Amino acid sequence: MPVAPTTDPVATDPQSPARPLWRTILTPRWTGLFLLAAAIAAVMSVLGVWQLDVYQSKTAAATAKRAEGAPVPLESLFSVNDGLPSKAVGRQVTVAGTWGPAADQLYISDRRNGDRDGFWVVSPVMLGSSGTEAGAVMVVRGWVATVDDVAAKAPTGPVSLTGAIAASEAQDASGDAAKGRVLQSLRIPTIVHLVDYRIYDAFVVQTSLDSAAGSGQAPASVTPPSPPTDHAGLRNVAYAFQWWIFAAFTLWMWGRMVLDAHRSDEDDQADGDVGPSGTVSA
């Protein structure tokens, strides 16, 4: 019995090629929406950068304020029994007392002064009044080319000075302590074992000598280390990331909408290509 040929378009016609995604993107509707989404994302990105600039400005201002504030007595910030508070680093302080034993003076090697290598001279100042012992603070008096320099001679007598608080350096110098008074780094944990009295958990880098008994040649002045960054305005950093997330979400939403529209068009095209099935004759 002969069989009539099928008239099913799916069987007789080649399958229509899938519509490329870029054709959907280039339609006026989606191109226009992309330009709008890109403009909104750009504005949000700029707002994020602006918030980051606000954070940096607040941070710089807070850091500078700490370093430029009026000097206060060292003892008003923390005591000899306390650890160094982070907020005290870089503060200008006044120190009044008596120079400590000459035998306790130290030298920190490999320190630059212009184009020359030399040493920082570190001397203790015994604090307290009316004979009451209140510990001591190690003062970076200045720079000398050699430890035999006449300016490195340990001072004696009462003293009043102004300086900036500096924290211990990271490099370990415990091995140097067993060899003498020349250390590679400025570290309270090392120095505390070299003296027989309590010392503050900080250094004071001398910036001016207000008064001292006697006179003589002084070491070259040392620039205090830059104070640590005071991270003020951290809320602005959160705002910046929030704006950037919004910008990325805007572009992502546009891409998601385009893909959904493209798949919908493909489904409509596939439904339109399927015709009625052919009949079989007897």
UniProtKB/TrEMBL annotation:
Whether Membrane counts among this entry's keywords is yes
Kindly give the PROSITE patterns that the UniProt entry links to this protein: SURF1 (PS50895)
Q: Where in the cell is it found?
A: Cell membrane; Membrane
What Pfam family is a match for this entry? SURF1
Keyword Transmembrane helix assigned: yes
Q: Which UniProt keywords apply?
A: Cell membrane, Membrane, Transmembrane, Transmembrane helix
Q: Please report the record's description of how this protein sits within the membrane.
A: Multi-pass membrane protein
Q: Which domain of life is it from?
A: Bacteria
Membrane-crossing residue ranges in chain numbering = 30-50, 237-255
Concerning InterPro entries, the annotation shows: Surf1/Shy1 (IPR002994), Surf1/Surf4 (IPR045214)
Kindly report the protein's main subcellular placement as a broad class: membrane
Family assignment from sequence similarity: Belongs to the SURF1 family.
What is the protein name given in its UniProt record?
SURF1-like protein
Which source organism? Kribbella orskensis
Q: What is the lineage of its organism?
A: Bacteria, Bacillati, Actinomycetota, Actinomycetes, Propionibacteriales
